[in-house]
Write a structure and sequence with these properties.
homodimer, five-stranded mixed beta sheet, alpha/beta, nine-stranded mixed beta sheet, about 280 residues
């Protein structure tokens, strides 16, 4: 799965949290529209959530309203359940697999290396949509942030990283990004290794990660990109843990709905450029 | 005063708020050390503050500890007091004029066009130090931010600007920057006019603005710079008020103590470069 540019047949959608689930459903509607024809079965995985009995019915209602033929409510609380053959079968039948918010470490701890995760990756390869909000978005890359107070970040070691679900490997994703002022978290990660694009998702904002590594912003909010590839200098390697990190030259973009970005080329795409590229790749 | 590059003989010091006032005094010590020889009189102006009787004694104690020969505690609550001849005389005798935090709009509303402000500008031209923390820092440029929730910023019109005290005109200054996640406020200003450098001061962090427009970061915290001059595109002019602003290509730096920046050349200065330039201009 981890390729230099995202290459699955299906679509990944990373949502910054607090997406509208009861009114216009702008983002969820777009997610649902990406499902390949002929399979409108949705699986909602609430593993990350501490309140699955509250969130699962919300998504059940939203996706039913959007026309889902079935919505499987999957709590998957532990590794036994993540190996359950019936659950694997439900995943295999689903055109959209949706991860709720909560704690991304619970998500990876329960699902890492499990038959359910293997089935989800397989479905993504085959063309299904994999979407997630908040923790469910942060956990998507090969490496994820699972902790780090924004106010203390940009001090060596303040941000905690570990392996993610590895649906995509060219980026690092953070959620609730503008609302919780998390710019410094992605700056610290970028200073530690400038190769991976930082994607900061605002609330009620999302990116579709199209095949060929084209990002498309959707929703009413912002998607912030922090591109460290041309980082000129940083003191990070010379510091003791906790000392403040200096950063010379990162590039900052703010995408709104309809704007895009080519991950490999590191190129911002204004709406007409994005449309042309998506049409070309269709 | 408003010149393309800061050209007074004295030093401006903009502090991000919550600087240490009772322990190591790292920033205040540096501010005090910039006072030209032979005049260690300090004037502390608490106009911005809602609690002048609490903050003035703190600065009285700190600057006395640092060796001030006198510390004038100036509340200056209204425009009558801002025109007071005795107060003007105290300013004229001071080697350091220090603005406390509080509300920058109170600061400009009370001091704008006043004899006290004229005297402060004159002292800066003559070589005195003018320093300010939080609101006292934000108010220093020709144009200042006085309001705008960080979580809602980067939506057209979310950030409110007005005239500042006009000690320097090449930048826009924001305080409590990392702690309150204010990146989007400077991004919105940068999108509206990319000419002016955005300076985001973290708490217990500061910049010295040296003659010739050389910035020097001091203190334990971070100074974030958002440079929009090479902005490639933005939709801001086409939006209705409240709509989300797209931004293509701003440059982001994080300075720590000893690092600098040349405003006119838009050049990051690592410590040995900064030292060389400061030595040259001495």
């Amino acid at each position: 799965m981890a390729s230099p540019v995202f290459s699955a047949s299906g679509h990944l959608v990373a949502i910054g949290g607090a997406e509208d689930r009861s009114s216009d459903l702008e983002i969820l509607k777009k997610v649902f529209s990406l499902i390949p024809e002929g399979n409108q079965v949705v699986a909602v995985i609430a593993t990350a959530s501490g309140i699955p009995d509250q969130v699962l019915p919300e998504y059940q209602a939203a996706f039913s309203r959007l026309g889902a033929s079935q919505v499987h409510e999957l709590k998957i609380r532990d590794r036994q359940e993540a190996a359950d053959a019936d659950t694997v079968r439900l995943i295999e039948q689903s055109g959209l697999i949706f991860f709720t918010g909560g704690d991304q470490l619970r998500l990876t701890n329960v699902l890492g290396g499990s038959p359910v995760l293997t089935a989800i990756r397989q479905r993504l390869q085959e063309g299904a949509v994999v979407a997630g909000t908040s923790a469910g978005a942060a956990a998507m890359p090969g490496t994820m942030i699972y902790n780090g107070a924004a106010a203390d970040a940009l001090r060596k070691g303040a941000v905690n990283l570990t392996f993610g679900l590895n649906f995509v490997d060219d980026l690092i994703i953070d959620s609730h990004f503008l609302e919780r002022g998390r710019f410094t978290r992605l700056m610290e990660v970028g200073a530690s290794n400038p190769e991976h694009l930082g994607v900061g998702l605002g609330e009620d904002a999302a990116v579709i990660i199209h095949p060929h590594g084209i990002l498309e912003a959707i929703g009413p909010g912002h998607v912030i990109l922090i591109d460290s590839r041309d980082l000129a200098s940083s003191n990070i390697a010379d510091l003791a843990m906790g000392e403040p990190v200096a950063v010379e030259h990162m590039i900052l973009h703010a995408l709104v709905s309809g704007h895009g970005f080519d991950i490999e080329a590191r190129r911002y795409l204004v709406p007409h450029e994005l449309s042309a590229i998506l049409a070309e790749n269709r």
